[in-house]
């Protein structure tokens, strides 16, 4: 935090301007990277091999899981033709910019100042005065591409430390301006002392749609709770919501809705009430055999209904309103009226929640939800589970690879599983563009095994260990492995209470005796010193044990970044025709290329009434002429046709609503 205060005070990093009410950051190089993601060339992703439970294959096994080795900026751009707007969950763990990570700035931005940074290790605070500028220049274009890949209802989660938390939040709010940005604090260790403070936390910054409703946390849910809520709207009344103040009439025999009376606003509009709104009295008179119910809280205070009369009647007919006998004796209502919130209704109508009718009476359509559970719906902003500790992630990686220290500070699998489980369904795609040791892939495979899901992962890693660590871990997770771990055994445990603190010296002596006896027994590989854990004096012994970790099953394909699609703004002849077709169709429609038509091999697809044709042969020049027109079988409102040349007249093109586009390639070389 001090680093950023220092940078702001020195004027090197600025918070300036206001865009849609939001402050924005300015830094060295920002104007050069604002549009850099447009300049990044598309590359082909070249599959190197595929892997599944049967082992490694040269042939494609059809897996939708991907591990990509290469610069993540280039890889993200190359994913756009197939995956723009299709990624439901993005998790990234970028450099924290602590000054200890030895990360290198390598983006080829056309700017003299930025070119000086290329290949240089980003230095420590006080040694490298542009370290924050470099980090922001690195993050900005990647976040812009991630924003394109994220689906409309998708969620991104970014792990970060305190060093770049504040600029990251501002950056995300600028790029994802129509989404909500929320910081979650995660306790990741027992503490890391620094300058008089003990840092026990890191952060996850969530980027989610407005109105986001996470999946419930199964671990935090109550066994049963009613999905219905009181329809009274406290805080509003006949003055502020006169259109939502009206009587509801209930049949005293059946407890069914009979109808509603006119709202206060309707009475005013019709001249049937001319007094002050504040003086309006609720009239409990009703037809014989009926009871009037007014919007009054359980405390007896006048309020308003949550629904206007037409919405209320519609919801009743659909079964989304419940009427039950009143339990409160603080108002004159004989009945309580409850409703289902929009989120519950959406889940009922989508089939996510199953329902049944609560009554055999035809006049009562009210629905109840099977096995409704609640209590763990919202994501809390402080996570303290010890399963999130960084040392757990290190132990998991050591177990999987059989070697210590191969990767610094890997995230624990449980942390990533909990993120994914809250924001995805079982067939969604999860992207990690800073894949590191492949914790995200590990989490996805675990979850698929647990619930039979078909989640897909795309992991991008630029470092040379992409195959030896990233992919190797995934191979072992798929096939299973032997994990050596320390099994802990409690050798001494005594709770410390006010009543026994006088016996503390004796308890400590007993604990030391327990340690000595355990060491002398030779049954333990190590025995710890007495320590206090959660107000208990404990001695813990450890035994090294080998556990057989059963494989999750699954598969993936391993890719390298291949040829650029364009060279000097011309199609690269080394790229396959299928990849070029995919690129052309994406650039025209921002959609993934449909399956090729056997009847029309030159047809790319139809989008918004326009048919797109790519009249292309790798080793020959093509022409848009009358013969090609005769070959077209697809009926469309308009046509976009690529070819090397066109011999049709302008009138003919206009007659058939054809837009001709010249294929960008060097015909002289054909």
TrEMBL record:
It comes from the Bacteria. One of its GO terms (molecular function) is DNA binding. GO terms for biological process: DNA restriction-modification system; methylation. It holds the Pfam family N6_N4_Mtase. Residues 87-465 form the DNA methylase N-4/N-6 domain. The keyword ATP-binding does not apply. Belongs to the N(4)/N(6)-methyltransferase family. This is DNA (Cytosine-5-)-methyltransferase. Transmembrane segments: none annotated. It comes from Phascolarctobacterium succinatutens YIT 12067. Keywords: Methyltransferase, Restriction system, S-adenosyl-L-methionine, Transferase. The keyword Lipid metabolism does not apply.
